[in-house]
């Protein structure tokens, strides 16, 4: 019996040492030390032994069990260690590798232009005013001297939401909202940037959504010469001190008289080239003296107060300033386009 136990021990240890696999090691443990294993089997026969031999065999059996258990534990530790080392070797982290650079953003060229124009007018004492993009027919048209059915409404094809509500087609309604807030008292000196919407088919120079900047000054004794002086400063700061402006008669329902402002072409300086289509001048914005009807409807006394207003499209200004040929570049968010306008 003693020999049998010794044999089992040797056999077990041999198997334990021979394995490289955690699952197999567990199978070995079960097969030798389990309830149905050979050691238990041997011990079952102890009853047939003489009384004085039983403790001796019992002791041997315990030692064999202990030896096998120890061998398994030792092997287990080695195998586990090997497993960890294998993982470490295959999943190595190189802490000396350079990091991936974080791409820095920059202002969108349109934002940059709007801010530049805002700053210019803030420097002349203007404040910024804003209004809703979903606007009432009253503010977008009627209060701007464009009653229902007025033919000039057709100049701006609109997105109506209901009979009385639309996406604003211009930033001019902010003029009216601001005048109302001033309750008939000047001075008013505001610049209003914002998105506007028109039913246009998008192409290189048209977009159903674009940006406008509106200006409004209302006070006592505001004259056309104030408008001209302001626009001259604006044009020269924006496009260069050597630029000239000219005002051409035009029509807007909310101004009288109305003008369109051109700047002299920077390419040919008035000689005529393909940028200015041979005229020497480039159209920049619409402007005029605020129509008395607009002042009166908003609660201002048009005998006491006069004013001027202007409206421009920053996309167009950016296109002229930077030589951008397609307005859609502002909206498709191609970083190769946007990244060209990084500011210091
Ligand atoms: N709202 C006009 C437009 O969208 C632009 C404009 C022209 C605004 C003359 C003005 C102005 O304030 O005085 O076509």
UniProtKB/TrEMBL annotation:
Cofactor dependence: Mg(2+)
GO cellular component term of the entry, any: cytoplasm
InterPro entries: aa-tRNA-synth_II, aa-tRNA-synth_II/BPL/LPL, Phe-tRNA-synth_IIc_asu, Phe-tRNA_ligase_II_N, Phe_tRNA_ligase_alpha1_bac, Phenylalanyl-tRNA_Synthase, tRNA-bd_arm
Keywords: Aminoacyl-tRNA synthetase, ATP-binding, Coiled coil, Cytoplasm, Ligase, Magnesium, Metal-binding, Nucleotide-binding, Protein biosynthesis
Reactions catalysed: tRNA(Phe) + L-phenylalanine + ATP = L-phenylalanyl-tRNA(Phe) + AMP + diphosphate + H(+)
Location(s) in or outside the cell: Cytoplasm
Co-factor binding details: Binds 2 magnesium ions per tetramer.
Limits of the Aminoacyl-transfer RNA synthetases class-II family profile domain: 111-320
Enzyme class: ligase
Superkingdom in the source lineage: Bacteria
GO terms (BP aspect): phenylalanyl-tRNA aminoacylation
Pfam families with a match to the protein in the record: Phe_tRNA-synt_N, tRNA-synt_2d
Database matches in PROSITE patterns: AA_TRNA_LIGASE_II
HAMAP family with a match to the protein in the record: Phe_tRNA_synth_alpha1
Complex and partners: Tetramer of two alpha and two beta subunits.
Similarity comment: Belongs to the class-II aminoacyl-tRNA synthetase family. Phe-tRNA synthetase alpha subunit type 1 subfamily.
Protein name as it appears in the record: Phenylalanine--tRNA ligase alpha subunit
Organism: Bacillus mesophilus
Lineage start: Bacteria, Bacillati, Bacillota, Bacilli, Bacillales
Gene from which this protein is expressed: pheS
């Amino acid at each position: 019996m003693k020999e049998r136990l010794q044999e089992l021990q040797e056999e077990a240890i041999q198997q334990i040492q021979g394995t490289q696999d955690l699952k197999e090691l567990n199978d070995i443990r079960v097969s030798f030390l389990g309830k149905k294993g050979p050691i238990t089997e041997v011990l079952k026969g102890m009853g047939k032994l003489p009384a004085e031999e039983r403790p001796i065999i019992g002791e041997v059996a315990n030692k064999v069990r202990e030896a096998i258990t120890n061998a398994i534990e030792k092997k287990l530790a080695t195998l586990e260690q090997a497993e960890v080392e294998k993982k470490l070797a295959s999943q190595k982290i190189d802490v000396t590798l350079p990091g991936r650079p974080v791409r820095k953003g920059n202002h969108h060229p349109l934002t940059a232009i709007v801010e530049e124009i805002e700053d210019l007018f803030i420097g002349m004492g203007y404040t910024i005013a804003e209004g809703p993009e979903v606007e009432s027919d009253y503010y977008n048209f009627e209060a701007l001297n464009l009653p229902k059915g007025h033919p000039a409404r057709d100049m701006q094809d609109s997105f109506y939401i209901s009979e009385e509500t639309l996406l604003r087609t211009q930033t001019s309604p902010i003029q009216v909202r601001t005048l109302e807030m001033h309750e008939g008292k000047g001075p008013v000196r505001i610049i209003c940037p914002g998105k506007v919407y028109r039913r246009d088919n998008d192409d290189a120079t048209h977009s159903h959504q674009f940006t406008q900047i509106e200006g409004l000054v209302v006070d006592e004794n505001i004259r056309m010469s104030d408008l001209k002086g302001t626009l001259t400063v604006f044009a020269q700061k924006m496009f260069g001190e050597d630029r000239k402006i000219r005002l051409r008669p035009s029509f807007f329902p909310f101004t009288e008289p109305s003008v369109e402002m051109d700047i002299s072409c920077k390419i040919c300086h008035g000689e005529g080239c393909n940028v200015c289509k041979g005229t020497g001048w480039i159209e920049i914005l619409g402007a005029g003296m605020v129509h008395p009807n607009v002042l009166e409807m908003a609660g201002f006394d048009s005998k006491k107060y006069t004013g001027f207003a202007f409206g421009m499209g920053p996309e167009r200004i950016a296109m002229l300033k930077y030589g951008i040929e397609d307005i859609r570049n502002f909206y498709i968010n191609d970083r190769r386009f946007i990244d060209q306008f990084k500011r210091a």
